[in-house]
Structures are given as structure tokens and as C-alpha cells.
Amino acid sequence: MAARLAGENVRRMHQSLHHLVADAPWDDEAVLDRCLEYVIPAMLHRDPIVAWIVDDTGFPKKGRESVGVARQYCGQVGKQDNCRVAVSLSVTTEKASMPVAFRLYLPESWIADRKRRKKTGVPESVQFQTKTEIALDQIQRARERDIPQGVVLSDAGYGTDTEFRTALTELEMTYVVGVQSTTTVWKPGEQPKPAPARKGHRGRPRKLLQRGNKCQPTSAKELALSLPTGAWKNVTWRPGAKQKLQSRFAVLRVRPAHRDYWRSAPHPEEWLLIEWPVGESEPTKYWLSTLPADIGFQELVHLAKHRWIIERDYQELKQELGLGHYEGRGWRGFHHHATLCIAAYGFLVAERNRFSPSARAGHLGLRTSSPPPDFRPRGSPPSSRAA
């Protein structure tokens, strides 16, 4: 990049670009907002927004001095490891997706360590937030940007949090979110008992819901295992690379049971979607959803499985656009680097939506500039002329 911009003084331009990423005081959100003004209309040109997807991604990193690094679960390696984790929000159509928010998660050990905070430039305003709290902030800001809304999708890392689901409902946003097999629900047609009437004339009236020996919720897994064979249906949700993707699902209307004994009214009914692939010894995935009661079975499955689309985003962002290549240690540099990678990805998303698939397969007549003929990348072996 430096060679293309300033072939006559590559070293100086390289230092300028490094400063732009690591230290320059520009606003990440302002740059991303400007990027979205360009990308979102291009996405909407072909299809409407289908979903907002909440997710996080890990970046393996050794040591302890780089901002946010701690021993925590890293999806990239599939286990606990030293890494950074960032929370993101993406908007998607049926065929395109784009991150609209991206923020580093800081573990509590980092929040309390003033020495490391100062060394890596973590702003004083940044206090501890759970990943779900970061995600809700990102959703709030996306609404303030007037980005067209979609169904909120997430994995069980977020969906199991009842406060997260409740907050989405209060925002009047529907969701399809993964939950754990241990999530408790009331069987179809069942719910906790209303508070018993007060005896006598003393004390306050009872308001909280009651449970009893014969009135107890069940785990999602126990409910799934109790279903008859006829409850399970094969559903195809999209074409795959070699064949159509399909699996076996069951769906029921249930009421979540999490701490409803502290409520005066039961939780509203939701969909419980369960996947039990043929050949597996037990169900493998569970979702709760506030989509309308009249939604089609196949559409519900399709939306639950739509999270796959951002796997492509992260693959391209990390491998092709360098999101996983940041070697700095600072808060500002990490977010600047991510913002520039996302902006570059946004350009690709917009360009893909400009051309039909058949046009993309051919020659578009687009030209790129070339570096100076005598330019040699850093680290290259000396040329024969230099020898």
C-alpha cells in the first residue's frame, strides 16, 4: 500500500499508515457509519434485510500485555485458550451480510488492572460489560442509525441469558436464539399456578406465581426426549455445496420458566425448536423464538439456521482482509484495524451487489494500479543487481 501511494518515499508512507492505524485519533463509529451509508443501500438493492445476527469471534494471542488477552473460550480453536474476543452485530439479507458494530470484550481482570489499562490505552469510560450487554448496546445504536430491522439471531451464548431475550422483547424485536438443553420450560398447555388467595384480612395480597409437587417445569432436553416419533419432521432449509441441507426437527409452543416464581404473570408463549439429526443419540440444538404463532415450520427452521451466513464474513475478514493479523497491543489500534478491515469488506459486499452472479464470473474490466517497477516488499531477498 505504501509503495502504491508514495513510490518515491515508501518508508515515510509506511510509517504514516502505521500511525493511521495504531495512534491517530479518528472515530471508529463515524468511519463505520459512513461505510454503512454506502453498503446498506447496495444490499437493499437486491433483497430486504432478513436478520440482525449477534455473535463473537476469538483471536488467539499469547502473552498478557496485549489489550483484552485472557484465558477464555476461543471459537477459532474450539477450546479455552489465551485470546482476545470481540462482540459483533451483523445485518443480513438472504444472500449478503455486513458487520455494523464490532467491540472488544474486556474481562473483569482487565477492568480492575489500572496499569495494563493505561499501558494499552483503554479509555476511562470503558467499564465491565458482559457480552450480552455489549450486544444490546450495539443493537440500540443500530436502531438509532435507522438500519432496517430484522429478526435477531444468536447462539446459546447469548440466547440462554433471559435478560437478553427480555430486553429484545421490550425493544419490540422478534428473535430466534439458541438455548442450552438445560433451559427450563413449561410443557405445552401448562404454566405455574397463580398466587393463592390471602387468608384473613391481614398482610398484603399474594402476587407471585407458585409451583407445587405436580406443577413443575421441565428441561428442554427432557421435553424433547418425551416427544412421540410423529412429532419429528424432516425439514430442508437451503441448498448446500453438494446437496440440500436438511435435518429432523420438532417444534412446540411453550412458556419459558426461568425464575417465574418471582413474577406475578407467566412468561408469554414462545416457540421451542429442537433439532435431532438422524443417527444422533439425542437432540443436538435448541432455540427459543418470539416469531408469530402462525409462522411456517420451514421458515422458522430457515431463520434459525441463517446464522451460517456470517461464517463466510469472518472467514473472509480474517483470511483475506487481515482482521486476524493485528499484532499491536493497544485498544485504539485494535479497533482502528478492525474498522478498516470491515470497511474494506463493506466495499466488497457493495461491489458484489452491483453485479449479477453471471457478470461476476466474467471479466468486469476493472483495473488496478501497479507499484513502482523498482519496489521490493520488506523482507524480500536482495536482488542480483543489489548484490
Structural class: alpha+beta
- Top CATH class: Alpha Beta
Mean pLDDT: 89
Distance between the termini: 26 Å
What does this 3D model show about the protein?
- By secondary structure, the protein is α+β, with helices and mostly antiparallel strands.
- It is 33% helix and 21% strand.
- It has a single domain, classed as Transposase Inhibitor Protein From Tn5, Chain A, domain 1, CATH 3.90.350.
- It contains 13 helices and twelve strands.
- Strands 1, 2, 3, 4, 5, 6, 7, 8, 9, 10, 11 and 12 form a twelve-stranded mixed beta sheet that branches.
- Strand 3 and strand 4 form a beta hairpin.
- The protein is globular.
- The model has no long low-confidence stretch (mean pLDDT 89).
Features:
12 strands, alpha+beta, 33% helix, Transposase Inhibitor Protein From Tn5, Chain A, domain 1, 387 residues, twelve-stranded mixed sheet
What's this, in brief?
With 387 residues, the chain is of the alpha+beta class. It contains 13 helices and 12 strands. A hairpin with a 4-residue loop joins strand 9 and strand 10.
Please specify the SSE layout and strand pairing.
Blueprint: H1 2-5, H2 10-22, H3 28-44, E1 51-60, E2 70-74, E3 79-92, E4 97-104, H4 108-111, H5 114-120, H6 131-144, E5 151-154, H7 156-159, H8 162-170, E6 175-179, E7 184-186, E8 218-219, H9 220-225, E9 233-239, E10 244-256, E11 270-275, E12 285-289, H10 297-304, H11 309-320, H12 331-354, H13 357-361
Parallel strand pairs: 1-5, 5-6
Antiparallel strand pairs: 1-3, 2-3, 3-4, 6-12, 7-8, 7-10, 9-10, 10-11, 11-12
